[in-house]
């Protein structure tokens, strides 16, 4: 699992696990906790609670405490078995439809959609009434209704994992499909499958009790639902026995359902770090430590004023709050980008480059927090834009070329469709968007015969060209290219950078080019900003910085690039 979870998530998880453990112990040790048969008359009818009968007896003389303990066995067993079967069916459907694709994908996913569209509780009642009573039938009926939700959730992740670079590489090396599924796909799905299992078990326990309460359960077995059924049928509410006959199984059901819900929340939070308030990092990289840090060497050169400045960042600070301390990812940063110029933003991993890019586009999410500063684009502060107003800016006036073309492109759509979808943001007619998409793909060097290709059918360099086409198709004022050549060979890197420079000339774009490779970016950048520990430690013309870097960290980056090794961190920690 990828995340560690917040304090609240961990607390709820422990509470939920405790409720489930107590319920399971009741079921397991039922013969030791009571000596009475739950289905045999052990005493006189309507006995009050006593040492021999802690919850008294019903109208026939059954020990209600024994029924509560043994009922946990049936309720929990049916719930867990149904959840296991439903999750396995959903996983199988997701893998077949999402990995093998082809002709099976459409029918299987339409069946999933149909099952999800039906009212599941009504469907459970109809199926149970049609197939009859019995524990196995109840498990099958519940599973037949509950499998579709795990299938839908897992399917989208199978499609994504299938196109991961390491999965593609394994296929290219001749690995069989079963081996790829077992070694690469299923392990990535396991945390999400566990989350779906917990959610399904929660609903399955409720459905079993509901069926038993309606008289559709196995009449020969005692469960919490059957206790409620007989209590209602025999008018327990008209006597004082309702407190011992109805309340205990009702509370037990509530405890189990709440337990599954809490555990499910904790599992989901650990599988998805975005739900957690924590952030990984070095505790030494805290705000207090950073605030007192002064880099060695000369102070940053003053930012040269840009003629016709289109983007200006002033005093920007971004913090990540976490249990190990607050991490200052961007610290009082200032930069300017002129129209038609390329500004290279360079720094080692963890220096705050990508955080700055996400902040510019309004894509930061908790636990990130912008402490202050402004981001002015053509006279408007991007930090003040919210909702639809921010949406109107992204993709139109400022756009992003993200890292990792394979993960950024949708594997189920052709590249032309994806560029056309971006073009449709500024065009009223679909035909105009389609034509513009073809034209832009031509401009970035994708021949017409490949416009209908899917992302996995293109090389890494061609996929990166598609991302660039999507970013510039609406001719924005600023393009933020976040490490656009990462993972590409040296020749392809040069071609991609030349493409960006050429588009800058033709379309009059302003480009913020983010990278950790200072010599490479300096080839096409007009200006450079070197970052370390969230700060801009050197700013100036690219030619001047290459000719005589003033800051030790800049010299370290240049020396490391020349030696072909990673630079040693001078001060602070990424």
Label this structure with key terms.
Rossmann fold, 12% strand, four-stranded antiparallel sheet, six-stranded mixed sheet, 10 strands, alpha/beta, MetI-like fold, 2 domains, 574 residues
Q: Could you walk me through the main structural features you see in this protein, from its secondary elements to its overall organization?
A:
By secondary structure, this protein is an alpha/beta fold. It folds into two domains: 7-28 and 69-275, MetI-like fold (Orthogonal Bundle); 288-397 and 476-563, P-loop containing nucleotide triphosphate hydrolases (Rossmann fold), CATH 3.40.50.300. It is built from 23 helices and ten strands. The chain has helices spanning 7-28, 30-33, 64-100, 102-117, 120-131, 135-146, 148-162, 165-172, 177-213, 224-233, 242-245, 247-271, 287-291, 353-360, 387-393, 405-408, 415-423, 430-443, 460-472, 490-507, 518-522, 542-547, 552-563, and strands at residues 309-320, 327-338, 342-346, 368-377, 380-381, 398-401, 478-482, 510-515, 527-532, 535-541. The strands form two sheets. Strands 6-7-8-3-9-10 form a six-stranded mixed beta sheet, sandwiched between helices. α20 (490-507) links the parallel β7 and β8 (510-515). α5 packs antiparallel against α6, α6 (135-146) packs across α9 and α7 (148-162) runs antiparallel to α9. The longest helix is centred in the first third of the chain and has 37 residues, at 64-100. It is elongated, with a radius of gyration of 31 Å. Mean pLDDT is 80; it is low at 273-306 and 566-574.
